[in-house]
Design goal:
Elements: H1 9-14, E1 19-24, E2 29-32, H2 34-40, H3 44-47, H4 58-74, E3 84-89, E4 95-106, E5 112-121, H5 123-145
Antiparallel strand pairs: 1-2, 1-5, 3-4, 4-5
Length: about 150
């Protein structure tokens, strides 16, 4: 292709602004890009080979593994083309909000190899939206309690 820049796939993954995490069929992390380190706090040497539980809050693990197994067995995820907001676990132990998108990775012979997730930290946006929803509820309650006052 004429004019195509000389960029390989590894550079694209390493320089992606969002976390890129690939886990094998057993849920063990096999790829962890620099953005994943920045977002989740784990150095690649601590993340690669570890189970995904290192970034999944305990209260979500059972549901995660049910969905993970179901998606691998089906060869697809019900969240294809969607971004799912949820909580994640940082290396220092605090929970934060992330937006995740998923895909099932297949070999050339169509065998399911594992799952790929892209993640971005949405904590600031989530908290801002939560505060706006709280304020809107307060205003709606004030209007309902005092219909004679127009905001």
């Amino acid at each position: 292709m004429a004019g195509r820049p000389d960029v390989n796939e590894q550079l694209l993954l390493e320089q992606a602004p969002d976390a890129v995490v690939y886990a094998d069929r057993d849920g063990n992390i096999q790829y962890w890009n620099p953005a994943a380190e920045r977002i989740f706090g784990f150095h690649p040497s601590d993340a690669v080979g570890a189970n995904l539980d290192i970034i999944i809050p305990e209260q979500f693990r059972e549901a995660h593994w049910i969905g993970f197994e179901r998606a691998l067995a089906a060869g697809q995820t019900k969240y294809t083309g969607q971004a799912l907001p949820t909580r994640a676990l940082h290396q220092d132990g605090h929970e934060f909000y992330v937006e995740l998108s998923f895909s099932i990775i297949r070999a050339s012979d169509d065998v399911v190899l594992g799952a790929l997730a892209h993640a971005r930290d949405i904590t600031e946006r989530f908290m801002r939206d939560r505060e706006m929803r709280r304020r809107l509820r307060e205003l709606e309650q004030a209007v309902t309690a005092h219909p004679e006052v127009t905001p």
